[in-house]
Amino acid sequence: MGLVCLDMEGVLTPEIWFETAKLFGIPELEITTKDEPDYDRLMKRRISILKDNNIGIDKIADVISEIEPLEGAKDFLDSLRRFTQVIIVSDTFYQFAMPLMEKLGFPALFANSLEITDGMITGYSLRTNPSKVNTVRALKSIGFKVISSGDSYNDIGMIKESDSGFLFRTNEKIRSEYPEIPAFYEYEDLFEAIKRSL
Known about the structure:
Layout: E1 2-6, H1 16-24, H2 39-52, H3 57-65, H4 73-81, E2 85-93, H5 94-103, E3 108-117, E4 120-125, H6 131-141, E5 145-150, H7 153-161, E6 164-168, H8 172-177, E7 183-184, H9 187-197
Parallel strand pairs: 1-2, 1-5, 2-3, 5-6, 6-7
Antiparallel strand pairs: 3-4
Helix pairs in contact: 3-5, 4-9, 6-7
């Protein structure tokens, strides 16, 4: 009984923070979990930048409404879901992700929650910590063979905890640091690797 866990941003959708950085002209928001392995430090920095620039949840929601899934992502996801269960396991937030889930056909999503006061993001709450690793452990504990894929530092634990795991469209730094993890760039190659693992 197999189950696939996929990261969202960078694997199925563009990076929300990167798109926000481009729109508002704030290069500091371009830093993602591909660059910064300490998620708490990264989020505190993002929240501080948003506060300093008076960017609230409504402005970010406007950015997200314009984001489309990566080319081929929905077809890839639909193909996977024809023969196995898929869960999107992401360190994003439900408040950000739901418009993108609609565009992907509403796959199951395990994410985190933002704390919002007067329209401004003031903090965040993790579903569990470490969320991706704990998710895989829990799924394995109830009898699933878990295959996972992601692109960033925050996906490495999930990939290593899984029965099989793959990097997808990661950067060269991460790929060189983890040469033991197979890495792919095209959806069809990742699809075949997952199918073989299952």
